[in-house]
Amino acid sequence: MRDRIARALEWVLRLLLPTPGKHRAVYRSAPHVTPPTDLSKDNPSPSRPVICAPRTPIPVHVLVRTMPIPPSTRPLVPLYMQHWQKELEKRERQRQRCVALVAGAMGYDYEYTYDGAHAHPAVVTA
């Protein structure tokens, strides 16, 4: 029963709604735009888009972002590894805060500090 309802609903939607995308007859009958001929490889201009395909302009800033970094300027530790290390440090700080909170709720002293803290734990001996 559900299959018949789904097929009937699909048939009604095909009649009522136009189909999107390049496979429509309206899209195929539209006049095609030709790329400009004044752009050449010998005379690149940063203000004009770079044409990589007949109808696909790619802006220069997108091409610059996708260019590989030369080895001489590449950082010693990759950026994804730096972000991963920061994430691990953040998780460790959060775990330490949770442990300090539980210890404080139970009445125990827990020597917890963090970077930039104004008060540091001190040991007092009698």
Structural class assignment? mainly alpha
Number of domains: 2
Sketch the topology as an H/E string, one letter per element.
HHEEHH
Mean pLDDT score, rounded?
75
Please, what is the oligomeric state?
single chain
For the biggest β-sheet, the strand order reads 1-2
Total E-strand runs: 2
Task: Give me the secondary-structure topology.
Elements: H1 2-16, H2 25-29, E1 50-53, E2 56-58, H3 60-66, H4 79-106
Antiparallel strand pairs: 1-2
Model description:
This protein is mainly α. The chain has 2 domains: 2-66, no CATH class; 75-126, no CATH class. The protein is built from 4 helices and 2 strands. A two-stranded antiparallel ribbon has the order 1-2. A hairpin with a 2-residue loop joins strand 1 (50-53) and strand 2 (56-58). The longest helix has 28 residues, at 79-106. It starts with a helix and ends in a 20-residue tail after the last helix. The model has no long low-confidence stretch (mean pLDDT 75).
